[in-house]
Design brief:
It contains 7 helices and 16 strands. The chain is an alpha+beta fold and about 325 residues long. It has one domain: Ribonuclease Z/Hydroxyacylglutathione hydrolase-like (Metallo-beta-lactamase, Chain A). A hairpin with a 4-residue loop joins β2 and β3.
């Protein structure tokens, strides 16, 4: 059994008798504290989720700074997160990835080395590893079973962040492996949707599907209207500053792509046409090959230098 599939005392099976509520289901009365860290270079938001000073916490979608011109990495963004965690006496239990990001490199291994915690993602990361191991010719380097991660969540699996109860929700469409994390009355939606005036995520990556994304978003929007939704990114129009928090009710009434008045067929037509106009993300080639390995860099070569691959004419 790989370490990713091993049982863990803070993670619980998703199976419960029909019609019977789980004692471990997230309680909407729990309202975790959420500290956002916005990276303007990649428009990514990293979150620290906790119950107050001295409590356990989870870190969602941490960013490693990367300069594509020089190939240099730095930990400035991650170090801000570390400073916050230490200042508030928090104990990191989880480093949660919503998916294998194509727009930034993950700093999860660095944060783990400094703060502890377990790096986790959805079990469908195996499918993403399979596709991109071929693109980058990583056979024998990436196991393909998700064992690079400390834990692989199943859909509906519940787990603890200290006293907070959390649930993993499989919400594919942007990629096959996307997860949202519900922690009390807060949901971290990954790249399923953006702020209401921005809309939805693209669906043209390998394994993406606009029909599937629509259904995933409807699953999220079936949650109570007051549920807080936290975006993984914000690409704000020129008329406002970046914002990352909204509600189910606000999305249902106002999301320009996915409000209650938009049918599945209309969404798929719009999304498919829009995706044809989009270029690849700036950091997709460096980020994907790192992120399918849980943020770990390639091993150094004989000269002590690590190298990322740039496949030609492959995407």
């Amino acid at each position: 059994m790989s370490r990713s599939s091993a049982a863990h005392p803070l993670a619980h099976s998703a199976a419960h008798p029909a019609g019977q509520a789980s004692a471990h289901q997230p309680n909407s009365a729990q309202s975790p504290l959420v500290e956002p860290f916005f990276d303007p270079v990649t428009a990514t938001v990293t979150y620290v989720v906790h119950a107050g000073p001295g409590s356990a916490c989870a870190i969602v979608d941490p960013v490693l700074d990367y300069d594509p011109k020089s190939g240099r990495t730095s930990t400035e963004s991650a170090d801000r997160v570390i400073a916050f965690v230490r200042e508030h006496g928090l104990t990191v239990q989880w480093l949660l990835e919503t998916h294998a990001h194509a727009d930034h490199l993950s700093s999860a291994p660095y944060l783990k080395s400094q703060l502890g915690g377990r790096i986790a993602i959805g079990e469908h990361i195996r499918a993403v590893q399979g596709v991109f191991s071929q693109v980058f010719n990583l056979g024998g380097v990436v196991a393909g079973d998700g064992s690079e991660f400390d834990h692989l969540f199943q859909d509906g699996e519940t787990f603890q962040v200290g006293s907070l109860v959390a649930r993993a929700m499989h919400v594919p469409g942007h990629t096959p492996a996307d997860l949202a994390y519900q922690i009390g009355n807060a949901v971290f939606v990954g790249d399923t949707m953006f702020m209401p005036d921005v809309g939805s995520a693209r669906c043209d990556f390998p394994g993406g599907d606009a029909h599937t994304l629509y259904r995933s978003v409807r699953r999220l929007l079936d949650l109570p209207g007051e549920t807080r939704l936290f975006m993984c990114h914000d690409y704000p129009p020129a008329t406002r500053e970046p914002r990352f928090e909204t509600t189910v009710a606000a999305q249902r009434s106002g999301n320009i792509h996915l409000n209650d008045g938009v049918s599945e067929d209309a969404f798929v037509e719009m999304r498919t046409a829009r995706d044809r106009t989009l270029s690849m993300p700036n950091l997709i080639l460096p980020s994907i090959q790192v992120n399918i390995r849980a943020g770990r860099m390639p091993e150094p070569e004989g000269n002590g230098v690590r190298y990322l691959k740039i496949p030609l004419n492959a995407l």
